Amino acid sequence: MNQTQKLTNENTVWHEPHIFRSDREKQNNHKSKILWFTGLSGSGKSTIANAVEHQLYHQGARTYVLDGDNIRKGLCKDLGFSDADRTENIRRIGEISKLMLDAGVIVLTAFISPFRKDREIVRNLVPTGDFIEIFCDAPLEICETRDPKGLYKKARAGQIPEFTGITSPYENPENPELVLITGNKSVDECVKDVLDYMKNHGVFIK
Amino acid sequence: MNQTQKLTNENTVWHEPHIFRSDREKQNNHKSKILWFTGLSGSGKSTIANAVEHQLYHQGARTYVLDGDNIRKGLCKDLGFSDADRTENIRRIGEISKLMLDAGVIVLTAFISPFRKDREIVRNLVPTGDFIEIFCDAPLEICETRDPKGLYKKARAGQIPEFTGITSPYENPENPELVLITGNKSVDECVKDVLDYMKNHGVFIK
Q1: CA distance linking residue B110 with residue B24, whole number of Å
Q2: Fewest beta carbons within 10 Å, which of A176, B95, B100, B120?
Q3: What's the pLDDT at B16?
Q4: Could you tell me if A116 lies within 8 Å of chain B, comparing CB atoms?
């Protein structure tokens, strides 16, 4: 490999230096993973994802939270909430997560992601063990009582068609890596459960 | 903010801790940027982007290269090469780049991105100064002689419809941040030009 070779020399085969995921993980002192939070609106996905990120950041990790705020207004602004559009939405989020995984980042996603098959598609996009499905399990009644964005109220009033838990189904994960009973636990306890899982599965190097 | 509060307490307004781009930039010791390489097939975009990444990695920077290999087979596998699909392709790449920018990463993109308006859309997605357009300027004749993937040959044989430079236009950047005359310069010289631009524009902190 001779970096002074002219690009114009058609006889040159330029062997590109390439930085691999393993190089980035070494640089970051942690493996990259996808922490996929799933559950009803109001089940605590976003709150816990952000609290976990906060802890990880202060441990020096490279992280990023993907959520409705940065996805629905950007990459997926052309999509609605029909079943087909929800599927495409999750497919794209899966593909971005895969890129970020390759970039060495611990990606935390906070989407209802109600359909089992869509979550399985994402799981199968990446190497075994890299997709950590975290089910934020809280009864509809509790989520509806919380209703932090007033969405359940609107859905009950018929102002939001196809609202998960009301007029559109949520399919519980069958074999999630982690279940957080968010109705019974504090945010701190949930964060600890997630970090313990990561420690026990060798995410942190040395 | 009391992290021990139960998520179930509907009277609680939970103020989520949030990690901002500025936090990540501080952690990384560099600003995040989009280095947007544009030019004909064979003009050196991918080669130079990877060589720049290699240098940046060894300086301890967090980087990622987006190119046809990781985009066209993943996020944009539903898209073809019509004008509309090319536009949607670049829009999505712009949106991912924006997310990675927010994640503190120096993103290097290596796409022909032939249409001026599409590149301008990406430029306008992000704060002023964060989109660094790098024109890999080489005459069609040289690119066609290189033809590293045999694509020009196929295009001339009519096997690839809408091939940029042959049957689809390439619109030169009007005010790119950087022009690399890749027909006259070595890879090393091009890499140096890019790194010098970054140094001179305060990308590296401390």
Answers
A1: 24
A2: B120
A3: 66
A4: no
